[in-house]
Amino acid sequence: MSERTLSLIKPDAVGKNKIGAILSRFEGAGLRVVAAQMLLLSPQRAREFYAVHKERPFYESLVAFMTSGPVMAQVLEGANAVEKNRELMGATDPAQAAPGTIRADFAENVEANAVHGSDSPETARAEIRFFFPDLAE
Ligand code: CMP
Questions:
Q1: Closest CA to 132 of 35, 48, 49, 44
Q2: Distance of CA 99 to the CA centre of its chain
Q3: Number of neighbours of residue 76 by Cβ within 10 angstroms
Q4: Which residue's CA is the closest to the ligand 1 atom numbered 12?
């Protein structure tokens, strides 16, 4: 069954000119980009997006990183899109990410880790709404 997920290319990877290389990974794996927008998050929007992490020690640093430059937000669509995107991304910490994954190849460290992807279909719906409120569900 076709599914949608929210993907972000983070400021570190945008700064390294890797937008195309990362989108190619998604397309090569059979995921389709059905919406995309490049934008600069405000600190308030970044805090809201990562509200689930607000008690974590890295929260303010994460907000500073995510607002340090533009991000590329896209909706990916395809069979098992949530899980497939997570496999393509690899583990949160690039030091733990499997060879050939996006984070193994493009991430700097556990914070500047190149990409974000929704962790469940429920989260995907909320995160898609966050960036693309006009997208019909
Ligand atoms: P993401 O998948 O977008 O979800 C939460 C983000 O917090 C994560 O990627 C990293 O960018 C960041 N993060 C997670 N763990 C840590 C950590 N231990 N230190 C700093 N940042 C982290």
A1: 35
A2: 19
A3: 29
A4: 111
For residue 92, report the distance from its CA to the centre of ligand 1, in Å.
Answer: 7
- Per-residue pLDDT 10s for the chain (137 aa) are 799 999 999 999 999 999 999 999 999 999 999 999 999 999 999 999 999 999 999 999 999 999 999 999 999 999 999 999 999 999 999 999 999 999 999 999 999 999 999 999 999 999 999 999 999 66
**Contacts of residue 111, Cβ cutoff 8 Å, sequence gap at least 6:** 58, 61, 62, 65
**Is 53 noted as a catalytic residue in this protein?**
no
Distance, CA 62 to ligand 1 centroid (Å)? 7
111 lines ligand 1 (CB under 6 A): yes
Contact 132, 35 (CB under 8 A): yes
In the numeric block, which tokens belong to residue 127?
């995160």
Give the number of the atom of ligand 1 that is nearest the alpha carbon of residue 89. 2
Pocket test for ligand 1, best of 62, 108, 119 (most atoms within 8 A of CB): 62
CB 73 within 8 A of CB 7: yes
